[in-house]
Amino acid sequence: MDYINIIGFIGGGCTTISFIPQVVLVLKTKSTKDISLMMYSVFVFGISLWLLYGILSDALPVIIPNLITFVLAGSILFMKVKNEIIQKNR
């Protein structure tokens, strides 16, 4: 593995790890009221494009962190949408 890939993995790891506290907080409190639906929607879409880019270019330092971030941010987005639907139906 060359130094460029190592830099990519470290950078991707840092940005991916940054989502863990938010996921833990949302799972713990079940609250998403202070989370922007628009921001997470655009972010998850952007991450999915980075993931596709990584797959198409066969770049593991792009694929692995974006796949994990997609799952983490996607779970927050899913909970936000679910909570919005529940709120509207009350």
Folded structure, characterized:
By secondary structure, this protein is mostly helical. It has a single domain, classed as Monooxygenase (Up-down Bundle), CATH 1.20.1280. The chain has four helices and no strands. It has helices at 3-17, 20-29, 37-56, 60-88. Helix 2 packs parallel to helix 4 and helix 3 (37-56) packs antiparallel against helix 4. The protein is elongated.
For this entry, give a set of tags:
transmembrane helix; 4 helices; transmembrane; SemiSWEET transporter; Monooxygenase; SemiSWEET; 90 residues; 82% helix; PQ-loop_rpt; mainly alpha
Question: What does the secondary structure layout of this molecule look like, with pairings?
Answer:
Layout: H1 3-17, H2 20-29, H3 37-56, H4 60-88
Helix pairs in contact: 1-4, 2-4, 3-4
Organism: Citrobacter enshiensis
Keywords: Membrane, Transmembrane, Transmembrane helix
InterPro entries: PQ-loop_rpt, SemiSWEET
